[in-house]
Amino acid sequence: MAAWSSRKLLRDVLLKRVVSNQLPGVRCFSSAPKSAPKIGHYSKKGRLLTGATIGLLIAGGAYVSTVDEATFCGWLFSATKLVNPFFALLDPEFAHNLGVSAAARGWVPREKRPDPSILGLEVWGRKFSNPVGLAAGFDKNAEAVDGLLALGFGFVEVGSVTPVPQDGNPKPRIFRLRKEGAVINRCGFNSEGIVAVAKRLGAQHGKRKLDETSSASPSSNNEVKHGGKAGPGILGVNLGKNKTSEDAAADYVQGVHTLSQYADYLVINVSSPNTPGLRMLQGRKQLKDLVKKVQAARDEMQWGEEGPPPLLVKIAPDLSKEDLEDIAAVALALHLDGLIISNTTISRPDPTSKNPLASETGGLSGKPLFNLSTNILKEMYILTRGRIPLIGCGGISSGEDAYKKIRAGATLVQLYTAFAYGGPALIPQIKAELAACLERDGFKSIVDAVGADCR
To answer: Of 336, 245, 339, 327, which Cα lies nearest the Cα of 298?
Structure first.
């Protein structure tokens, strides 16, 4: 009833604006000033155009008021495809910032349709309505969490967040390889810093709690609710170190102390290729020392019944078999809660090697990264014997891609580059395709398919 009323209101507003001449190019003769020429003076073509416009508005308003909510929601997501060509004309970083601002202001469609039940799962005691998330790097400063979750992602990861604000590397630093469906970036952890992000997440958290309290009803307590501290979806916070910092562990510990209260999970990012020396922290001894210090910082804080947020490490795809064995050993020995596989690559897999932009320094993401990151994912699943939840990230642009990641060992998956190219309409498409893949192969749930290719 509320949805019908909102659509009826939209129709009435459109008609009101037609009557009051508030729509560009549409004139209502009954409200014309006395000095205006009479109707008969208008050309036949002008009268026909005006009549047709009014007719379309009335028909459109009538349609909006009668369609069901699911159909209307699908129409809104499909309509976003019309905007993608406009974004493609803009500078990549400007387009990125514009997208974040649009999501922050709620200028994006809201997913009202329930996810297919086959996509639901529980990880770390958190209930996910679907396993498709948005990777870190898009909403670096937690400006658009609510808007992005409303798009239908099962979870959103913000960051990387550094302790002290920093501008990152000089511009230009993002390059589109459109033909290959790829992007090269060398942003270098541009961040507003943990204080600004903490204030933003704190305000969002307070507003969400207030809304939940005011809308609580006796019947809702018996319903199975998905989501976490961010409301309808799960929120991850990705932590980074400052470029000039000499004590990496201290940076990550500071991030934990300041931001963990707002996070459903935390990520130690030691795999960006754009911060000098960062990837050295993936070595066995360095990683072990770092994880132990960060775990200790998290565990010494006061937590309620839900306990502390899970701690994950995000690794690079450019690792040797020995590197992977070391990381797996540390993850198992320290009972790490998860691994994200993977970050961007410094290699230039075909066909990107032939693109003139391939010579730009930075990390490559998108379709050309898919095989490399999936192979690393599968190897890590085998090395950890399926005991640690893995998030598959790198090159996913379809439901079939997401399914392959899951079969290779991923419990959850993340998008970024494909979302930048495809926009909001890609999200429901991937979820529908993923559900179809599971049903096609006889799986009753996501969990049943995890690591299927490794058995």
So the answer is: 336
